[in-house]
Amino acid sequence: MEEINPMELLRSNLSRVRIPEPTNRIYKQECCISFDSPRSEGGLFIDMSTFLAFGKDYVVWNYEKTGNPVYLHIKQTKKLVAEDRPSKKPTLLAIGVDGGFDNNEPEYEETHSIVILPNFVALTFPSVELPEKVRLTVDAILMAEGAERKEQVAAWTADKKQISAYAMDLRQTGSVVVPPSGWKCAKCDKTENLWLNLTDGMILCGRRNWDGTGGNNHAIDHYKETGYPLAVKLGTITADLESADVFSYPEDDSVIDPLLAQHMAYFGIDFSSLQKTEMTTAERELDQNTNFDWNRIQESGQDVEAIFGPGYTGLVNLGNSCYMAATMQVVFSTHSFCRRYYMNQSLKMAFETAPADPTVDLNMQLTKLAHGLLSGKYSFPASEKGGTAVPPITDAKQEGIPPRMFKAVIAASHPEFSTMRQQDALEFFLHFLDQVECSNAMKSELDPSRSFKFGVEERIMCSSGKVAYNKRLDYILSLNIPLHEATNKGELESFHKTKAEKISEGKDVSSDEIVRPRVPLEACLANFAAPEEIHEFYSSALKAKTTAIKTAGLTSFPDYLVLHMRKFVMEAGWVPKKLDVYIDVPDIIDIGHMRSKGLQPGEELLPEAAPGSEAESSQPVANEEIVAQLVSMGFNQLPCQKAAINTLNAGVEEAMNWLLSHMDDPDIDAPISHGAQGPEASIDQSTVDTLISFGFQEEIARMALKASGGDIEKATDWIFNNPNPSASPDMDTTTSSNSIPTPVDAGLPDGVGRYRLFGIVSHIGTSTQCGHYVAHILKDGRWVIFNDNKVGASINPPKDMGYLYFFERINS
Predict the structure, then answer these.
(1) Where's the UBA domain (predicted)?
(2) φ, ψ for residue 445, nearest 5 deg
(3) Are residues 133 and 251 in the same domain?
């Protein structure tokens, strides 16, 4: 058989080569089916027609599916380094920038060639002998910024300080002369954390921390009294004025004062002679990363045994993506998700059924993530890949896999998750399950999200003695934390007494001395099921408003029960605050007593509201006290009314939580609708068409959109929660009627109420929008810590510090 000339073979396939246009997405850093990269053993193959990238084991699948034979092969080989450079202490809260955390990233040498499938015939690049079209295509690919890079920020850093709007025209008064040392707060005995007000020269202490340390708030109190905007932290001023810590109270941020030298000279301060004695705010943030909670949750300072192999693969942090990493590690530790996207679906099967661009297909990217996490292919020590010495067994850091494409797909319908900002792990978990449910809409028997879903039934009894039952479906059981049920009240009283004494003496409370409330999980569960009063409840039996009693229970017990601890509450002044509390969580819980029994013999249902004016008056009415308090916090009247109505006037905290999570709803400022007043006209036909494209009938789509205010995601939930297509949108409320509605939890998994704890997602930080998330998972009989790309045997899992707790039902 005559051997084909490689150049002739290439020329015969030039029609399958396309020069990329500026709008084309070019993938050249990661395989769209696996986590292979140019640094993998086989390198990466870029389809020179579609510009999708494939690893060596998968490029043939693309050739078989598309017939595209010409590929640019990129291979990166690590350059040899004589000796590892020592890590430098960071001076910035940043990664991958000068002064930030040192990644010690090795350098790589890159080679290119043209490869023609199916026989992997290779031609050297660059070469003047190659056709011009090929050379132009390769140059365009190599020069383009990869699609992966556009969706990722390689380094993150704290927001750059801005010049204060108050600096240039700052008015200074008085004749105070500030000495170069020996400072003390003008209103207490504090000698540290002192701030010089740049208007009148007052020296006052900084803010009090949550644990009693820090100052006594005298500096900020002075601003509230006088309105003087800028202050500089004494002890941070040196000849390098840019490093000084200047804070703007009205702008509520650290700022730059271009005239700082002039402003300090007014008070007789010669900055050139001052020495740095205090940490800046940014440096204190760095220092606080080593506090008790941080070390405890991350198990820092302990010899954690590294674990490698199937199911023990770390996830690379893409920049504040730990909320996603911790959640997905727990999700893929469940049998339902493992079966759906790993055991019962191969990568080839997912690729063959994927659209032309598999990077935008959730099924493909979930299968890719599952195989990446569970196969063990990418679970090895970080330095082993380059052929250098294997790190000690206590170094749990892995190379890990970067979930870029998965993040891009899951964030497509939720713009906030596409940012590099920290997010709420709970919000991400719920959004993720919603997307999984939608993607499995036509094959619900395969939907793994159902293993988390359960029914909740609320029983409402008005003063007439008659009852109504409201049912809904949920993925999580959100629990308030009753601090009054703490089991260590004696220790707490003693601690608060000692703390008050130390503060009065101007002393700080050390982290070792802090005593936190300990609340049993059983108390949180009991609080959920406890009777609750509903004021201003309209009784269709009394035809008047009255006070009703509401109780709640579960109508089904899911395969996996997720408990969300409401650690973030509103404190005085309506400021969000994280509860500093421990939850005593046992390994096994039994919630059998929480099963709702439904309508009982002898109970009489509330009658359906009569049509006309009485029906109109039965519409929910917002509690004016709740609305007034929310409005006083700066929110508009209409959204506040909606918040109160949608939380059944349960209280300000519940309404605030609803308001904060629905501020971005497109209809948040739309008038409150009472009854059907031309709802069809308000439904956008494009949203109807979208639901029809999901496989739903038009009548059902319109009914769902009407019931959910036109929101597609909520409408989809409504359809799944209301399986009877001819039922009215209010079928989840049981009152006296001749119809027998289909249970909202029909077909959901159910069983006994005994559960075993198997996963914990913990949060470090003052808010869900900052800080860090870590997962601890019970695998193969031992607890394992998953901290981004670090995976190791847990020595002391923080069972009492969880934000989300994951339980698996015990069937035997």
Answers:
(1) 621-662, 682-722
(2) -65, -20
(3) no
For residue 704, give its domain range.
Answer: 685-721
Could you count the other beta carbons within 10 Å of the beta carbon of residue 5?
11
Cβ atoms 453, 473 nearer than 8 A: yes
* Burial environment of residue 436 by CB neighbours within 10 A (0 to 12, 13 to 18, 19 or more): buried
Mean pLDDT of 512-516: 81
Q: Cα torsion for 406, 408, 414, 416, to the nearest 10°?
A: 110
Predicted confidence band of residue 284 (pLDDT cuts 50, 70, 90): low
Number of other CB atoms surrounding residue 751 within 10 Å: 13
Are 10 and 115 found together in one domain?
A: yes
473 inside domain: no
- Taking alpha carbons only, the member of 792, 802, 795 closest to residue 758 is 802
Q: Are residues 117 and 204 in the same domain?
A: no
Which residue among the candidates 322, 338, 462, 524 is catalytic per the annotation? 322
Overall number of domains in the chain? 4
The CATH number assigned to the domain holding 33 equals 3.30.40.10
For residue 216, being part of any structural domain is answered with yes
Same domain as 128, residue 57: yes
Percent of the chain, pLDDT > 90?
45
Is 319 part of any domain? Answer: no
Name the nearest CA neighbour of 796 among 186, 69, 295, 147: 295
User: Helices 425-439 and 712-721 meet at what angle, rounded to 10?
Assistant: 70
Nearest to 513 by CA among 749, 213, 806: 213
763 token code pair? 């949060």
Domain finish residue from 221, 252, 286: 286
Q: Is the pLDDT of residue 527 over 60?
A: yes
Mean pLDDT of the chain: 81
CA-to-CA distance for 493 and 74, rounded, in angstroms?
66
How far is the C-alpha of 177 from the C-alpha of 452, rounded, in Å?
Answer: 66
pLDDT tens across 129-150, in order?
999 999 999 999 998 876 655 4
Task: Say whether 322 is catalytic.
Answer: yes
Same domain? For 274 and 221 the reply is yes
**CATH number of the domain encompassing residue 714:** 1.10.8
pLDDT at residue 55 above 70? Answer: yes
Please state, in angstroms and rounded to a whole number, the distance separating the CA atoms of residues 519 and 508.
26
Q: Which tens digit of pLDDT belongs to each residue from 393-416?
A: 455 577 889 999 999 999 887 767
Annotated binding site for Zn(2+): 185, 188, 205, 218
Q: How far is CA 547 from CA 598, 615, 670, in A?
A: 21, 19, 29
Closest to 789 (Cα-Cα) out of 211, 168, 95: 95
Give the residue-averaged pLDDT of 750-772. Answer: 86
Clarify whether residues 47 and 111 are in a common domain. Answer: yes
32 in active site: no
- Residue 320 within a domain: no
Question: On the CB side of 415, how many CA atoms lie within 13 Å of its CA?
Answer: 2
- The residue from 270, 286, 302 where one domain ends is 286
Contact status, residue 16 vs residue 48, Cβ threshold 8 Å: yes
Residues 246, 247, 248, 251, Cα dihedral to 10°: 120
**Whether 22 and 114 share a structural domain:** yes
Backbone phi and psi for residue 60, each to the nearest 5 degrees, phi listed first: -65, -35
Using only C-alpha atoms, the chain has a radius of gyration, in whole angstroms, of: 31
Residue 116 near residue 10 (C-beta atoms within 8 A): yes
Q: How far is CA 739 from the centre of its chain?
A: 42
Q: Is residue 309 pLDDT above 90, yes or no? A: yes
Please tell me the chain's helix, strand, coil percentages from 3-state DSSP, rounded to the nearest 5: 30, 20, 50
Average confidence (pLDDT) over 659-681: 62
Binding site residue list: 185, 188, 205, 218
What's the average model confidence in pLDDT over 182-208?
Answer: 91
**How many C-beta neighbours within 10 Å does residue 476 have?**
17
Its pTM stands at 0.70
User: Residue 637 maps to which CATH number?
Assistant: 1.10.8.10
- What is d(CA 481, CA 455) in angstroms, rounded to the nearest whole number? 22
Q: What are 733's two structure tokens?
A: 């409320």
